[in-house]
Design a protein that fits this description.
315 residues; mainly alpha; MetI-like fold; 2 domains; 13 helices; 75% helix; globular
Length: 315
């Protein structure tokens, strides 16, 4: 009998101890509800202005959707037409060419300028300001500046080349150099973003690492190779991924500087999508093109991130 009473008492004590976590869970639930009430306005705005347009755009890509008239369901015919459109592939090739040319320059040159601006030199703040200042300019202002500089008759660049007795290319009207013109403008205009990230990364490297390397007899190149580069690996990965994504979405400076010319030699895929949707009024077809570009950017980003992570693990 005594054993049965002991078992009953232990069971009752266990049930009493099980009630305490319920009160704790209830308190945690109320705390989470309060936190959710603070986040809810942002989530609602995010869903209305981002998630819903993304879903609607995906639905539009399956319709013959124009700005006027009823939409007609087409299934995958927009995508089939897109993959067979030579103009789409030309614009995609132009975008890839721009990305391949501009990305290494924007990464390497930003690192070099960050190393220079991080040294203990007089008026160091002035160099940092000069390197970063073009980022603050709107794209229209940057294009106006370089449009004047590229002019064949009185442009600053051709005048300098003429003074050196060098050939003067027609920067904006020659299909062979028009893309280079866009790349030069983009590098000058957007370099400050990567420069700022690298400068912040350099300032986070502990001085003790350089002092230890000096004690071991390492020179400037050895410090850069074995201390600076490994310490900046995460920043470099971030910059590469962000730069590739931004380059694949290039539009503003090309549209304002060359309008995709000459002879469509610089028209990027974003401009192709824009002109299809708002000039030809084929919103469904343009939506299909935008989602194809989204998938391509996603694939390139995943491959790039995977390769960089594998390289870091093997290093």
């Amino acid at each position: 009998m005594s054993d049965i009473l002991v078992q009953r008492q232990s069971v009752q004590a266990g049930t009493r101890t099980m009630r305490a976590p319920r009160h704790i869970r209830s308190s945690q639930w109320r705390t989470n509800l309060v936190g959710l009430s603070f986040v809810a306005p942002f989530l609602i705005i995010y869903a209305i202005f981002l998630i819903w347009p993304v879903i609607l755009g995906l639905a539009m890509s399956f319709y013959n959707w124009t700005l006027a008239g009823a939409a007609t369901f087409l299934g995958l015919r927009n995508y089939q037409e897109l993959f067979g459109d030579a103009d789409f592939w030309i614009s995609l090739r132009n975008t890839a060419t721009f990305t391949i040319i501009s990305t290494p320059v924007l990464v390497l040159l930003a690192l070099v300028l960050a190393l220079l601006a991080n040294r203990a030199i007089p008026a160091r703040w002035l160099f940092r300001l000069v390197f970063f200042a073009p980022v603050a300019l709107p794209v229209t202002v940057a294009v106006i500046i370089w449009n004047w500089m590229y002019q064949p008759g009185f442009g600053l660049i051709n005048n300098m080349l003429a003074s050196l007795h060098l050939s003067q290319p027609d920067w904006l009207n020659d299909p062979k150099v028009a893309m280079i013109s866009v790349v030069i403008l983009t590098v000058w205009w957007t370099l400050g973003n990567n420069f700022l990230l690298y400068l912040a990364g350099l300032q986070q490297i502990p001085r003790d690492l350089y002092e230890a390397a000096s004690t071991d007899g390492a020179g400037s190149w050895a410090k850069f190779r074995w201390v600076t580069i490994p310490q900046l690996s995460r920043i470099t990965t971030l910059i590469l991924i962000l730069q590739v994504i931004a380059s694949l979405q290039v539009f503003g400076q090309i549209y304002l500087l060359t309008s995709g010319g000459p002879n469509f030699s610089t028209r990027p895929v974003i401009q192709y999508i824009y002109e299809t949707g708002f000039s030809s009024f084929r919103m469904g077809y343009a939506s299909a093109g935008s989602y194809v570009l989204f998938v391509l950017i996603l694939i390139v980003t995943i491959i790039q991130f995977t390769l960089l992570q594998r390289q870091r693990r093997n290093a």
